[in-house]
Design goal:
The protein has 247 residues and is of the alpha/beta class. It is built from nine helices and twelve strands. The strands form three sheets. Strands 2-1-3-4-5 form a five-stranded parallel beta sheet, sandwiched between helices. A four-stranded antiparallel beta sheet has the order 6-7-8-9, with no helix packed on it. A three-stranded antiparallel beta sheet has the order 10-12-11. It starts with 5 loop residues before the first strand and ends with a strand.
């Protein structure tokens, strides 16, 4: 049975909200709605949507600012709605990270076609991702080819140090990796990496290398372990270092 996709519509115009809800449901989608950015953020924190439709012109935080804020936490595709028709407005909308931009008034059938196109593209990308060599770590999958960590279809943000760390742990899965080896891999060339965050630079400068490994292990555990204090996957091997035990 085909799984129905869940769409969130965010618009302060109640009439448009009702029309879109009715039309999208008629076309087989599950629909939730919000009339403002604050409620939309609460919904996206509690529900995993397949696509968001956001109106640009809203009181308080507008759709552009909302999109920027949401994309710091999620990778859900977004379609922006607006009454503005200038090319510069469209470019601004797409520059925020939105997947598409449609001007009001619009034909609802066009909106459906754009939704279907985006969801079809996401499915293709996810299937391509699944074709790569994957390591299952609980609810997560690590793509060795792309050095990416995924949970379902959500890409988990990793710092460059965390990427290097998990890459080495996956490469040596089920085998303890010495702390000093990890330190060498993570920090040997740190002076050449200008993209590291201020926090990472502080860690490297202020702590010994091996302590820096411990700090990054703890950060990685917080992202993949249900209980970081009692890790199931990233194990401490006393007197040696750390070991990844995937599923």
């Amino acid at each position: 049975m085909k799984q129905r996709k869940h769409i969130l519509v965010v618009d302060d115009d109640e009439r448009i909200l009702m029309l879109l809800q009715r039309f999208l449901r008629k076309n087989g989608y599950i629909v939730s709605s919000s009339s403002n950015s604050k409620d939309a953020k609460i919904l996206t924190d509690t529900i995993k949507f397949d696509l968001l439709i956001i109106d640009v012109m809203m009181p308080g935080q507008d759709g552009i600012a909302l999109t920027k804020s949401l994309l710091k936490k999620i990778t859900t595709p977004i379609i922006l709605l607006t009454a503005k028709k200038e090319l510069s407005d469209r470019i601004l909308g797409l520059e925020t990270g939105a997947d598409d931009y449609i001007s009001k008034p619009f034909d609802p059938r066009e909106l459906i076609l754009r939704i279907e196109t985006i969801l079809r593209r996401i499915k293709v990308e996810f299937n391509e991702f699944k074709g790569n060599k994957l390591t299952k770590i609980g609810e997560f999958q690590y793509d060795e080819g792309r050095s990416e960590l995924w949970k379902d279809q959500d890409l988990i943000p990793l710092t460059s140090t965390e990427r290097s760390l998990i890459k080495e742990l996956v490469r040596c899965a089920n085998t303890p990796v010495k702390r000093d080896i990890l330190a060498k891999i993570l920090f040997e060339n740190q002076s050449l990496d200008h993209k590291k965050s201020a926090y990472e630079k502080y860690t490297i400068k202020s702590l010994k290398r091996e302590r820096g490994v411990d700090v990054n292990i703890n950060r990685l555990r917080k992202k993949i372990e249900k209980n970081p204090k009692s890790p199931r996957y990233v194990k401490t091997v006393r007197g040696i270092g750390y070991m990844l035990v995937p599923d």
